[in-house]
Design brief:
It holds the Pfam family GerE. By secondary structure, the protein is mainly alpha-helical. It is 72% helix and 0% strand. It has one domain: Winged helix-like DNA-binding domain superfamily/Winged helix DNA-binding domain (Arc Repressor Mutant, subunit A, Orthogonal Bundle). The protein contains four helices and no strands. Helix 2 packs across helix 3.
Length: 65
């Protein structure tokens, strides 16, 4: 994944909406949607909830909490 995709993953996992992510990263909401769609196709997740679960599991397995 690209650096930007990882940024978007972290912001989604923090509970931000597409509009909030767009404002934080100075992108359009449509661009954020495209990033999210690409992330969902690359990772074994179907939606934001599964993405958050995956991120939390990774953090726990790496003792980053």
């Amino acid at each position: 994944m690209t650096t930007r995709q990882i940024e978007v993953v972290k912001l989604i996992a923090d509970g931000n909406t597409n509009d909030e992510i767009a404002a934080i990263l100075t992108l359009s909401p449509d661009t954020v949607k495209k990033y999210a769609s690409r992330i969902f196709s690359v990772l074994p997740v179907r939606n934001r909830s599964e993405l958050v679960k995956l991120v939390l599991e990774e953090e726990l397995s790496n003792n980053q909490w």
